[in-house]
Amino acid sequence: MSEAAEIVFDHVTKRYPGRDTAAVDDLSLDIPAGCFCILVGPSGGGKTTALKMVNRLIPFDSGEIRIDGRSIDTLPLTELRRGIGYVIQQVGLFPHMTIGENIATVPRLLGWNKRRMHERTTELLELVGLEAADAGRYPAQLSGGQRQRVGLARALAADPPLLLMDEPFGALDPITRHRLQTELRRLHREVGKTVIFVTHDIDEAIQMGDRIAILREGGVLAQYDTPDAILAHPTDEFVATFIGEDRALRRLALRTLREVSLGPVDGDGPGVSPDTTLRNAVSLMIETGADRLTVEDGGKAIGTFTLRDAQELL
Amino acid sequence: MGGKPVIPNFGKGSSCVTGDHFFCWDWVHQHWNDTLGPALWQHVELTAIAVAIGFALAFPLALLAHRFRPLEQPIGVVSALVYTIPSLAAFQLLVPFTGITWTTVEIALVAYTLVILFPNIVTGLRSAPEEVIEAARGMGLTRRQVLTRVELPLAVPAIIAGLRIAVVSTVAIGTIAATLLPKGLGYPMLLALKEPTPFKTEIYSTGILAVALALACDAALVILRRALVPWARRSA
């Protein structure tokens, strides 16, 4: 199995009988291998439908979806699904199986031997921030956040080149959600899979995505680009409204002071760490009334960042 | 004991027996081997056969109804109708067809267990949460694997709950079998009741045995559930 797969939606359309508008309307998307791609939009935008087409939980009417150039219709259903990690909001752990057995679901279907399954389970528990001893517990004994970690481990078990995630953090409290978002990004850097991630939360989309596909009602693709490009150049009113009027600040939140070129040190203004986001830097200037900040790395001034610099970056 | 009526011999009995006191242990002790023991054993047999056959019929029917949902209602309606027939009447209704036989008794009892077990098994099979089934399908389990690895294990608590009701009610209904055949715990009870002055100890001892048998079966099923469903009792 390859490390990451390229996914192509090629003019895919899905209509549910008895509905006027399509659920997904002529959707074309190229998702490069290793990309963390977000499908976002209001309800009725068809994002979950689009996601579930990839593992054929929902059949589509026309068009084609290809994984690494192969149409998903050419593979036997079970083989296709065993090669795709699948994570859903309600997690759907098997209540009658231990955490270890849950994680080893797909490896068992694939006929791995006991030792290999055990090693893989232990490795995955560690990867998702649980302990090896948790393998013997039952889902009912875990918290919501822990269950979703197990859900993620289970999806990764057979090392699939593609992960489908359907609002995986939607049911978690804000603190747990934020922690898992951060860890999923780290995990994505480590394991380098292609991820298709559905959310209705634009903040989550901007924070997590390498690319964002914004779908509008009727399953029409409104814009597909990097978070920065979408915030800088929303294609239309719908996208502009959806991403919010504070898009300038959201854009600034995407980068830290370390990632921009700083002016020469002039010693003026409050000191700030280079890991501060531009948004927080601007906030600090507004708060203190200063028009510049001195960026200090380990107590040593390395440059100056001004309000004007921030404006010019937008 | 066969068909021979067991009537306490007042001449040989203790003063407790001859005086028909509230409860005479010595009578129980004396007649365990010729009356109570065999009746208890026949009752166990009666119940076990009825529940086993009832389960053997209800299980595939429930699988069928689970797989093809439109079948559930007709099967359910027929079962409910069967359950409304009083057991005494059920035995008599069957006599013209199967005679005064063990078969007649078992057919009636099997019908009742079937009616109890079928809806319980169907409910159990449906008890798997939707998201669990979706996750299972999404991971590439076949329909059969979803059934055997997910739906059936999750149905075990409901199936055992159904078995408990079926066993307990069959033990109770089984005493009525004595109106047809001289078998089971109902028979000594019936004989005692037919006397002009019913012998109390005989009625009480058979009644107590029936209750004890029901409770013992129920307890055994509770233990079985604990063994088969370790995941439900270890909640956080």
Short synopsis of the structure:
Chain A has 13 helices and 13 strands. Chain A is an alpha/beta fold and 314 residues long.
Counting H and I runs of at least 4 residues, what is the number of helices of chain A?
13
The residue-averaged pLDDT of chain B reads: 88
Count of distinct strands of chain A? 13
CATH names the topology of chain B as MetI-like fold
Tell me how many strands of chain B there are: 0
Structural class, from secondary structure content of chain A?
alpha/beta
User: What is the multimeric organization of the chains shown?
Assistant: heterodimer
Provide an overview of this structure:
The complex is a heterodimer of chains A (314) and B (236). Chain A is built from 13 helices and 13 strands. Chain A is of the alpha/beta class. Chain A has a 6-stranded mixed β-sheet, with helices on both faces. Chain A has a 4-stranded antiparallel β-sheet with strand order 2-1-4-5, covered by helices on one side. The longest helix of chain A is centred in the middle third of the chain and has 18 residues, at 174-191. In chain A, helix 5 packs across helix 6 (144-156). By secondary structure, chain B is mainly alpha-helical. Chain B has a single domain (36-227), classed as MetI-like fold (Orthogonal Bundle). Chain B is 74% helix and 0% strand. Chain B has helices at residues 15-18, 25-30, 32-67, 72-84, 87-98, 102-126, 130-138, 143-174, 186-194, 200-228. In chain B, helix 6 (102-126) crosses helix 8 (143-174). Chain B is elongated and about 75 Å long. The N and C termini of chain B lie far apart (54 Å). The mean pLDDT of chain B is 88. The interface between A and B is medium-sized, with 33 and 25 residues.
Provide key terms for this protein.
heterodimer; A: 314 residues; alpha/beta; 6-stranded mixed β-sheet; 4-stranded antiparallel β-sheet; 13 strands; 36% helix; 23% strand; B: 236 residues; mainly alpha; MetI-like fold; 10 helices; 74% helix
